[in-house]
Amino acid sequence: MTLLFWFSILWVLAATAVAMLPMRRQYIPGVALLAAAPVLIAMIAVQVGWVFGALALWAFVSMFRNPLKYFWARFKGQDPQVPQ
Fold first, then answer.
1. Is 27 helix (H, G, I), strand (E, B) or coil?
2. Domain extent at residue 10
């Protein structure tokens, strides 16, 4: 097993654990996972192939759709509402 495989598994387990936390405690570890994901996806695309990189990107966007919507709205200058 490659190191990339183990990093990918650890990332998925960490994302699952963070998802089980209450919403107010998800922000800091969630942002760390959100920042680490593009690096991991790029490594997957380079080492395994662009098809698997695209699948990893699709899974990432699916999992983090709400934070990505929030950051996209902030980028466009809007003031999105954060769930309590």
1. helix
2. 3-75
Angle at 56 between CA 50 and CA 8, to 5 degrees: 110
Residue 61 DSSP one-character state: H
**Triad 4, 5, 11: Cα angle to 5°:** 85
Q: What is the mean pLDDT of each run of 10 residues along the chain (84 residues)?
A: 88 92 88 91 94 92 83 87 68
Helices (H) and strands (E) in the chain, counts: 4, 0
Q: How far apart are alpha carbons 50 and 15 in whole angstroms?
A: 23
Number of domains in the chain: 1
* Residue 28 counted as domain residue: yes
Helix (H), strand (E) at residue 63: helix 50-63
Q: Are 67 and 34 in contact (CB under 8 A)?
A: yes
